[in-house]
Amino acid sequence: MSEIREVVIIGSGPAGYTAALYTARAQLRPLLFGSSIFVGGSLTTTTEVENFPGFPEGVDGPVLMENMRAQAEKFGAEMIDDDIVEVDLTGDIKLLTDSAGTVHRARTVIIATGSGYRKLGLPKEDELSGRGVSWCATCDGFFFRDRDIVVVGGGDTAMEEATFLTRFARSATVVHRRSTLRASKVMQDRAFADDKISFAFDSEIAEIKDTNGMLGGVVLRDVLTGVTRDLDVTGLFIAIGHDPRTELFTGQVELDGEGYIKVDSPSTRTNLPGVFAAGDVVDHTYRQAITAAGTGAAAALDAERYLASRNTTHIEQEPAVVPA
């Protein structure tokens, strides 16, 4: 059997790396499992990040993640670029099985598996990510100043993103498959009142055009008639929702109706003792790198305090000095 670790972290985005940094500095020797193919989380698919504090000139997403990883490793965090494929988190000692079948044991587990943007499933969608295709208006809106862009979606997120993007863009076309929006009335009213926003109802994106490695426009298709038309835009923002990566924990960790992990806010405690969750896997609202990092720090502190309360930390006590 493997040794019992004080802390095992699942996930390698800002939340996971921050949790690793904090627990490593607390001398808890954390073991972090990233991913076999998606190390560093969604920021590794982003080009320039301008809203992470401490980088006045901006920083490339992959560079930011590499730096966060290196900082955690500097203090003793151990990183494994592999997937955890099975867990048993119900006992005092948590059991985690990696893709090779090795079982790892831990007294505490921090879940930081994040969430994934729902995609359209079209050719060129992934290839043009960061080159005109985006899933985050607050991350990338600034780069589309005085450009024509399109936003896909009909809910509150899509309306919020379209309204935000008109601060920069020349125009925003909202594309929605239905004849009416699903967004709340207040969000609809705000979007309808914005003279930069127009709507393409009963429509979907049929094709994403690639022009020399950059988004060169999209083709819209009327879902009722099948008629297509070109839309000359240089920005495509997809706002059709997120899916938390919680399949591994279903049936053990309590989830809400949308599949996000429920925590005892403002702490990061889940329904299972010794199991904590941080980052986008618990966050419906903000989904920013800085907020994920903040909850990663909170999860580390919660885990440290949990271990201290149970007197199970690996730190050995100095023997008492007996007077001669």
TrEMBL record:
Keywords: Disulfide bond, FAD, Flavoprotein, NADP, Oxidoreductase, Redox-active center
Domain of life: Bacteria
An example Gene Ontology molecular-function term: thioredoxin-disulfide reductase (NADPH) activity
Catalytic reactions of this protein: [thioredoxin]-dithiol + NADP(+) = [thioredoxin]-disulfide + NADPH + H(+)
InterPro entries noted in UniProt: FAD/NAD-bd_sf, FAD/NAD-binding_dom, Ferredoxin-NADP_redctase_2, Pyr_nucl-diS_OxRdtase_2_AS, Thioredox_Rdtase
EC number: 1.8.1.9
Record PROSITE patterns: PYRIDINE_REDOX_2
Cofactor remark from the record: Binds 1 FAD per subunit.
Cofactor dependence: FAD
Claim: Metal-binding is one of the keywords in the record: no
Domain FAD/NAD(P)-binding: 6-296
Pfam family, one: Pyr_redox_2
Subunit structure and binding partners: Homodimer.
Similarity annotation: Belongs to the class-II pyridine nucleotide-disulfide oxidoreductase family.
Protein name: Thioredoxin reductase
Organism: Streptomyces cellulosae
